[in-house]
Amino acid sequence: MNEKQHDKLKQIQEAIQAFNSDKLYHSSIALFKALDYTSNKTDRITPNNFDGFMAGFGIPKSIINPEKALASHWKQIEFVFQLDTAGMKQHETLFQETVNRNEPASYLFFSIELNECVCPFQIWQLPYTFVD
Fold first, then answer.
1. Contact predicate 85/41, CB 8 Å
2. Are 122 and 70 in contact (CB under 8 A)?
3. Are 2 and 62 within one domain?
4. What are the tens digits of pLDDT across the range 25-45?
5. What is the DSSP string of 14-56?
6. Residues 6 or more apart from 28 whose CB is under 8 A from it?
7. What are phi and psi of 107, to 5 degrees?
8. Which of 1, 73, 80, 117 is deepest in the core (most CB within 10 A)?
9. What pLDDT score was predicted for residue 96?
10. pLDDT digits (tens, 9 = 90+) for 40-89
């Protein structure tokens, strides 16, 4: 491992460790920045809870099952950023094999802090059970 790679790994490690002390939004931005993702397409969710998330993105209550989404366990949710087609082109080598460049795409990145009552198995299942 060369010095540049070592420095990058250290930057990523420090960003991950910051989640223990920093605010969720700032820690999330710092982690994605350490991974070389940056975007000015970001906004804050107010209030930064399940209801604020649903209202802020105009999501009908019938789309997301709060129980499956573990909404009662959310301490907070933050909208980190939006990565669109233009942003993906900046990171072309990361997406080269999986993204069809002729298809408009947009990805929204969120961070959710859960309370300690959630077991790791529930967290692992979350992306698969979020939508009803």
1. no
2. yes
3. no
4. 999 999 999 988 878 888 899
5. HHHHGGGTS-HHHHHHHHHHHTT---S-----SS-SHHHHHHH
6. 78, 80, 109, 111
7. -120, 135
8. 80
9. 46
10. 888 899 999 999 999 998 888 888 888 888 899 899 999 998 877 776 66
pTM: 0.74
* Domain that residue 22 falls in: 1-36
80, containing H or E segment: strand 74-84
Rounded Cα distance between 119 and 29, Å, is: 25
Q: Are residues 45 and 25 in the same domain?
A: no
β-pairing, 106-114 vs 74-84, is antiparallel
What is the C-alpha to C-alpha distance for residues 93 and 85, in angstroms, rounded to an integer? 13
